[in-house]
């Protein structure tokens, strides 16, 4: 046993590893679970009590020598160039990794928000699960309106009508909550997800995203509405984009209108995006119906307001020429990575 220890002691003292794999081989050979030191300690158990006294000390010193050598070399290799990677050219560029990108709907929603923020609008949010009052009744929807039908709305709890609970069909419920809980003036936009009971196709989905807006104060006029939305279009689609307003009907606005913009793809000369008309409808708007103001606790003799609503998908389709709504919710990275945002 002494002979073996002398031989290994000389080997350890002479050992000088330059590479990480040599050092690891040293560790396994001497200090590993099936290594020489473990083997010597196993043999030690079988020697007589006389020998135990002398060899115990020798064996412990030997073990200490191996451990010290190992940690000394390990430390040296960490302090100097990494022995395992000594032959790697560290001046070469590293492997790149792909950054994610913002969803196109997020990019466009943020752009819309930025334009209105610059005009002094604040951003307001509300629940996606709504009661009948905030989603329909306060907004002047008559009892028999088709939007209140199971075919159009996802009901969570269908009771007597006024107690119904549903997934909101528009973000207008946020305006109602805002007016109920505050005092005019209100100048806010409401971005959010809304739900409609529709079969999924290239042109329709059971959920989509809206930005609605509300401006209530004394003397707010239809001229204010037109100028605000005209400015919004210039900012979003560029100077020179034309707008036109067509009369329309919504239960919650009177008068109501739909707004078209000159086709941003063909600049009005006609293409299949605008169905060769030169115009594309992008939003609905109008003066808030006095009944709605009163329902929300606002004095309609003192205050007037305008409101508008748009589908973010529609605005995005026009901006990026996307023809299938389903692309927005499939999370196919080949689609998503085409939209690079400046802020990651
Ligand atoms: C209150 C009062 C008035 C919000 C409005 C529209 C017109 C509109 C549609 C556009 C496409 C919904 O996403 S869409 O399907 N919206 O046409 N929305 S005025 O009017 C309000 C809202 C709340 C208290």
Automatic annotation (TrEMBL):
Classification via InterPro entries: aa-tRNA-synth_II, aa-tRNA-synth_II/BPL/LPL, Phe-tRNA-synth_IIc_asu, Phe-tRNA_ligase_II_N, Phe_tRNA_ligase_alpha1_bac, Phenylalanyl-tRNA_Synthase, tRNA-bd_arm
Keywords assigned by UniProt, alphabetized: Aminoacyl-tRNA synthetase, ATP-binding, Cytoplasm, Ligase, Magnesium, Metal-binding, Nucleotide-binding, Protein biosynthesis
Gene Ontology cellular-component terms listed: cytoplasm
Pfam families reported for this sequence: Phe_tRNA-synt_N, tRNA-synt_2d
UniProt catalytic activity: tRNA(Phe) + L-phenylalanine + ATP = L-phenylalanyl-tRNA(Phe) + AMP + diphosphate + H(+)
Predominant place of localization: cytoplasm
Binding, Mg(2+): 254
EC number of this enzyme: 6.1.1.20
Required cofactor(s): Mg(2+)
Record localization: Cytoplasm
GO terms under biological process: phenylalanyl-tRNA aminoacylation
One example GO MF annotation: ATP binding
Gene3D superfamilies, per the entry: Bira Bifunctional Protein, Domain 2
CDD domains: PheRS_alpha_core (cd00496)
Residue ranges of domain Aminoacyl-transfer RNA synthetases class-II family profile in the record: 108-318
Top-rank EC class of the record's enzyme: ligase
Cofactor note as given: Binds 2 magnesium ions per tetramer.
Subunit annotation: Tetramer of two alpha and two beta subunits.
Family of this protein: Belongs to the class-II aminoacyl-tRNA synthetase family. Phe-tRNA synthetase alpha subunit type 1 subfamily.
Database matches in HAMAP family: Phe_tRNA_synth_alpha1
Protein name: Phenylalanine--tRNA ligase alpha subunit
Protein species of origin: Mucilaginibacter auburnensis
